[in-house]
Amino acid sequence: MNPQQFGKVAVLMGGSSAERDVSLRSGQAVLNALISQGVDAFAFDPAERNLFDLKSLQTDRAFIALHGRGGEDGTIQGALEFLGLPYTGSGVLGSALAMDKVRCKELFKARGLSSAEFVVVEQGAQFDSQAIINEFGAVMVKPAHEGSSIGMAKAATASELNEAISNAFRFDDTVMLEKWITGREFTVTMISGVAQPIVEMVTPRGFYDYEAKYQANSTQYYCPAELSQSETENLQLLAQHAFKLVGASGWGRVDAMRDQAGQFYLLEVNTVPGMTEKSLVPMAAKANGMNFSQLVINILEQTL
């Protein structure tokens, strides 16, 4: 690897989404890794600088470490294409579709990929909380366009559901109510279209929420996950189908659950997953013999 081949690299981090803090940590880790490999890289926060400054700074390409809206939803990807700058990860369409949980689920359903049942609630629209609980039992409440489990909550009663929906509306005008799955939670990292070793996340909390991801010391990770070879291959194949279906490319992550009967269910596709010290993508890459610096370079090479 010749670091000069990349030219000047902007690591886009921060931004103005609800995931800003995580993005700053991811971006700093990526920046440190690039610099350690001799790449001419610098930090760039779109929330603090005009994106057109990238041209005056003579930037050659961008490593996107922005999470959430504005960075993971196709917005920054479209802007970079307008500027003529190569960038890491998925393009405009793949980013936009993957970020939209509702359209992701509709695509899974249309293609016959296993995913939990769901209903959608729009802000200002009428809905019957008790009827939803009667139909689904417990549900997972998710803002349609957020990541890092922000605004998510489990609801098992009508009153809990009303409270969870009200909180989710603080982050989004559209909220997805997904049938609760009791079982094990997994994630499959995708690098250059290849599924990496599966990670299983185990937390004493109700689910793998924001605190379990970034703050708690009680979360346990198993990589490779304790699955049979056939189960591993089935889940990796399911993840590859989902990743390709939404138009994602380059690198990313596909989250899934396995219920007590052994059935896998797709949750969502992440096109700019976390790259912090607790993140799952570096963990999966390490299990496949790739250290963090090699992972970052591998992702950046996809822009050449």
UniProtKB/TrEMBL annotation:
<dbReference type="GO" id="GO:0046872">
    <property type="term" value="F:metal ion binding"/>
</dbReference>
<dbReference type="GO" id="GO:0071555">
    <property type="term" value="P:cell wall organization"/>
</dbReference>
<keyword id="KW-0131">Cell cycle</keyword>
<keyword id="KW-0573">Peptidoglycan synthesis</keyword>
<dbReference type="GO" id="GO:0051301">
    <property type="term" value="P:cell division"/>
</dbReference>
<dbReference type="GO" id="GO:0005829">
    <property type="term" value="C:cytosol"/>
</dbReference>
<keyword id="KW-0067">ATP-binding</keyword>
<comment type="pathway">
    <text>Cell wall biogenesis; peptidoglycan biosynthesis.</text>
</comment>
<dbReference type="InterPro" id="IPR000291">
    <property type="entry name" value="D-Ala_lig_Van_CS"/>
</dbReference>
<feature type="active site">
    <location>
        <position position="279"/>
    </location>
</feature>
<feature type="domain" description="ATP-grasp">
    <location>
        <begin position="105"/>
        <end position="301"/>
    </location>
</feature>
<keyword id="KW-0547">Nucleotide-binding</keyword>
<keyword id="KW-0460">Magnesium</keyword>
<keyword id="KW-0464">Manganese</keyword>
<dbReference type="GO" id="GO:0005524">
    <property type="term" value="F:ATP binding"/>
</dbReference>
<protein>
    <recommendedName>
        <fullName>D-alanine--D-alanine ligase</fullName>
        <ecNumber>6.3.2.4</ecNumber>
    </recommendedName>
</protein>
<dbReference type="Pfam" id="PF01820">
    <property type="entry name" value="Dala_Dala_lig_N"/>
</dbReference>
<keyword id="KW-0133">Cell shape</keyword>
<feature type="binding site">
    <location>
        <position position="255"/>
    </location>
    <ligand>
        <name>Mg(2+) 1</name>
    </ligand>
</feature>
<keyword id="KW-0436">Ligase</keyword>
<keyword id="KW-0132">Cell division</keyword>
<dbReference type="InterPro" id="IPR011761">
    <property type="entry name" value="ATP-grasp"/>
</dbReference>
<dbReference type="InterPro" id="IPR016185">
    <property type="entry name" value="PreATP-grasp_dom_sf"/>
</dbReference>
<dbReference type="GO" id="GO:0009252">
    <property type="term" value="P:peptidoglycan biosynthetic process"/>
</dbReference>
<comment type="similarity">
    <text>Belongs to the D-alanine--D-alanine ligase family.</text>
</comment>
<feature type="active site">
    <location>
        <position position="148"/>
    </location>
</feature>
<dbReference type="InterPro" id="IPR005905">
    <property type="entry name" value="D_ala_D_ala"/>
</dbReference>
<keyword id="KW-0479">Metal-binding</keyword>
<keyword id="KW-0963">Cytoplasm</keyword>
<feature type="binding site">
    <location>
        <position position="268"/>
    </location>
    <ligand>
        <name>Mg(2+) 1</name>
    </ligand>
</feature>
<dbReference type="Pfam" id="PF07478">
    <property type="entry name" value="Dala_Dala_lig_C"/>
</dbReference>
<keyword id="KW-0961">Cell wall biogenesis/degradation</keyword>
<dbReference type="GO" id="GO:0008716">
    <property type="term" value="F:D-alanine-D-alanine ligase activity"/>
</dbReference>
<feature type="active site">
    <location>
        <position position="19"/>
    </location>
</feature>
<dbReference type="GO" id="GO:0008360">
    <property type="term" value="P:regulation of cell shape"/>
</dbReference>
<dbReference type="InterPro" id="IPR013815">
    <property type="entry name" value="ATP_grasp_subdomain_1"/>
</dbReference>
<comment type="function">
    <text>Cell wall formation.</text>
</comment>
<feature type="binding site">
    <location>
        <position position="268"/>
    </location>
    <ligand>
        <name>Mg(2+) 2</name>
    </ligand>
</feature>
<dbReference type="InterPro" id="IPR011095">
    <property type="entry name" value="Dala_Dala_lig_C"/>
</dbReference>
<dbReference type="InterPro" id="IPR011127">
    <property type="entry name" value="Dala_Dala_lig_N"/>
</dbReference>
<feature type="binding site">
    <location>
        <position position="270"/>
    </location>
    <ligand>
        <name>Mg(2+) 2</name>
    </ligand>
</feature>
